Amino acid sequence: MLIRPVAPKDLDALYRIADESGPGFTSLMPDRDALLRKIEHSVESFAREVETPSDEHYLFVLEDPATGAIMGTTGIEACAGQTRPLYHFHHNTVVHHSRELGLRKQVDTLTRCNHYTGCTEICSLYLRPDFRRANAGKLLSRVRFLFMAQHPERFSSTVIAEMRGVSDAAGQSPFWSWLREHFVDMEFASATSLVGSGYTDFIDELMPAAPLYTHLMSRDARAVIGQVHPHTRPALRMLEREGFRPRGFVDLFDAGPTVEAELRQIGSIRQSRRASVILDANAVDAPHDLMAPMIVANGRLSDFRATLTEHGNLLPTGESVKIASHLAENLGLEADGVVWSLPLQPNSASRPHEQPVAPNMNAHRFGERQHAH
C-alpha cells in the first residue's frame, strides 16, 4: 500500500469513489468537472511555497502498487472557511431566570455560527469496500498527521474533523427531517449535494440564524444531536485516541459532531520522528516478532510518498531508521537521506520529544466529511 498525492490520472477512480460513497460524504461529489478542479487545486497546493496556511487542500490517494488500483482517499484542508463560510450549530445550555418570581428554566439551544473558520480540517477519509484490509484505515487516518508533522507551517494551530451524523439505510437524517419540515423544504441528499458543489447561499437564506430550542424538536431529531453514524464510530475512536474531543459544535444537516485538537498535542504528531535512512539489503517481507508496524514517509511535498512496513527498525538512538532497500526505492529514499516514521498504533500516553518534531514546530467509508469551503 502506497500513499501519494492525488494526480489527474486518478480522475476516474475518484469518480467511482464519489459515486459509491453516497449522500453525506460531501468531500467528493460525482461530478467530473468538480473533481478535476479539486485534483488541480490539490496539485497546485502541494507545489506552493507556504509560510502560513491559506486555501490549500491536500488530497492523497492510497494505491496498490502491484495493480495501480486506487484503494481510498484521505485529505487535509489547510485553512477551512477561506473561500466559503464554514457553518456549524453550537449546542449550548441557556438558563432563563426570574429572581422576582423565583422561576428558573434551563433549556438547550442550537445556534448557527462560524466558530471554526481558519482552522485546519482533516477530511475525505474513504476506504473502498473491495480494498478493506488490515491497517489500511489506520494508514489513511494517521499518515495525514505524519505529513503535518513534517510541514507544520502549512497548518493552523487547531485541527478539526467533522464526523458524519446519524442517518438511516436510505440516507435520511432524522435531524434534517425536522429542519426540512420547518425551514428548508429540500431532500437531505439535495442539500448535501449543493454544499458539496460549493453552493452555500441557501444556508444564509433559509436556515435559522436565531437559536433553536431543542425541546421544541421532535424526539428523533433531539436523539441524534452530537451522535455519529454507526459506520463512523471506528473513525471517531481513532481520532479520540489522537486526542480529539467534541466542543459542542455539530453539523447543520445531520447534527454529527465536530471534534478538535491542538496541532502540537495530537498523538501522532508528538510520536513522529525525523531520522536518517540506513538501507537494509537483507530485510525480508516476513514480519518480525519484535518489530511493530510503522508508517514511513520521505518528507517531500509534490513527491510525497508513504507506506506501512513491518520490518522497519528505529535504532535506539532515534537518529536513524533501518529500512529494506526495496522499500526505500519505492519511497524515493537513498542511504543517509531523510525519512519520517510513525508507529502504526497510537500511544495516548506519549510524551513530547526532547527536541522539536520539526525545526519550526513552534511557529473509511462513513468517516470524516468535508464540506466545500
Describe this protein with a few key phrases:
about 375 residues; single chain; 17-stranded mixed sheet
Task: Provide a descriptive summary of the structure in words.
There is one protein chain. With 373 residues, this protein is an alpha+beta fold. Helices cover 25% and strands 27% of the residues. The protein has ten helices and 17 strands. The two termini are 30 Å apart. It is an enzyme of class 2 (transferase). InterPro entries: Acyl_CoA_acyltransferase (IPR016181), Arg_succinylTrfase_AstA/AruG (IPR007041). Its EC number is 2.3.1.109. Keywords: Acyltransferase, Arginine metabolism, Transferase.
Topology summary:
Layout: E1 2-5, H1 11-21, H2 32-47, E2 57-63, E3 70-77, E4 88-98, E5 103-113, E6 120-127, H3 136-150, E7 158-163, H4 174-182, H5 188-196, H6 201-206, E8 212-213, H7 219-223, H8 233-242, E9 245-250, E10 257-262, H9 267-271, E11 273-280, E12 294-297, E13 306-309, E14 313-314, E15 320-324, H10 325-331, E16 338-343, E17 368-369
Parallel strand pairs: 6-7, 11-15
Antiparallel strand pairs: 1-2, 1-13, 2-3, 3-6, 4-5, 4-9, 5-8, 7-10, 7-17, 9-10, 11-16, 12-13, 12-16, 14-15
Helix pairs in contact: 1-2
Short description:
It holds the Pfam family AstA. This protein has 373 residues and is an alpha+beta fold.
Tally of individual helices:
10
Q: How many strands, what sense, and barrel or not for the largest sheet?
A: 17 strands, mixed
Q: Give me the Rg, rounded.
A: 22 Å
Structural class call reads alpha+beta
CA-based shape: globular
First-residue to last-residue Cα separation: 30 Å
Number of strands: 17
Average pLDDT works out at 86
